[in-house]
Amino acid sequence: MHMKNKFLNIMSIPIVELLGKGLAFITIILMTHILPIYDMGNYSIIITLVMIASVFMDGGINNKIYSSILQGEEKKLSQYYVQKIIFSFISILLVALYAYMYYDYWIEILFYITMTFFVSQIILFKFIYRANQNKIWDIVSILIDPIFKLSIILIIYLLDINISLQNLILLFLIASIIEYLIIEKKFHTHYPEINYKTPKLYSLFKILNEVKYFILFYFLYILYQRIDIFYIEKCLNTQQTAIYFSAYNIYTASIIFVTALVSASFPQIKHFSLKKQILFFKKYFIIYFALLFLSYYILPIIYPIIYPLPYRNGAYVLFWLLCAIPFVFMTYLIIFNFNFLKYESKNILPIVIVLMLKIFIFSFFIESFNDIVIFAKSYILFEIFLSIIFLFRINISFSKEIKHA
What we know:
84% helix, mainly alpha, 16 helices, globular
């Protein structure tokens, strides 16, 4: 019974993360019924631009705070907290300036990245709650934003209200401010020691130096994950890009489940050897392979229900993307170990190697990639290679530290 309760306790956070991603996914689907295709195209560009900027808004501090709490080093939390806000404001200013220079819809971009700041703060609260195993407010922090956004979209959709992209993003921004105020008030009740003490200038450079590997890694990782989209658009056509991206959206929901599973479990297994950590998750692997087997038959049936009929080939793309999950899981687990052991720099080389390999293959052998399913299959091979490099790196150089941490 104890093991069963432990299993359910760990599972709850990843399931809630998946639920949150599912609500966000439903929101996007409903948006396609509310906004014209041109506006949805602009919205996609806005998301991509802000996603890149969000790496620098976060500044790696979310992960730094999470690792610091696990290690019992909580003295610098206030400093990290304020510095993240400062990095965010600098990022917003730079993106707003860039958008003003190059985009007609720069106001929408400004609204969206400002909204992202408030959502990013909520994510920070979530990481702190999770590291302290405060499950209730971890769950609230996960669900509050997707619930607010979906509620807005449902009202607009059901009442058949005509709305521009700019006004819709403005509503999202207002909602994110309300969400932030709700969580922030409770957060400072739970953690009154975390305050808004203004750091000195030199400390900003110090923390930037501390988190430089986080920033570099996640910037490279986002580029590694998203570069396929650019090559698909270049070598195939816009319709194939849309089909691939529709599958990739669902796949990212499963990846959020994986990262949540690892982060929710890691406080309990951080002192295990890597082999014991992997064995700890064997129940989840059994569930995964059962679901993967079923998805091969179910996806072609349900995919045209989720998306319009022209997207039906996305079912096969999604199946092959889902095959990569065990290797993504392995990679994330090793990344968490490196971060916990303060070996963040060891995460950089594997992703650089695989990113360069991907660019080389796509650049010189692109004629072989004449179908989006081939791109999906290549995605698995790259993830396998990445996980192998990470395994080699941790086993050869740090096996003793992992066993005796």
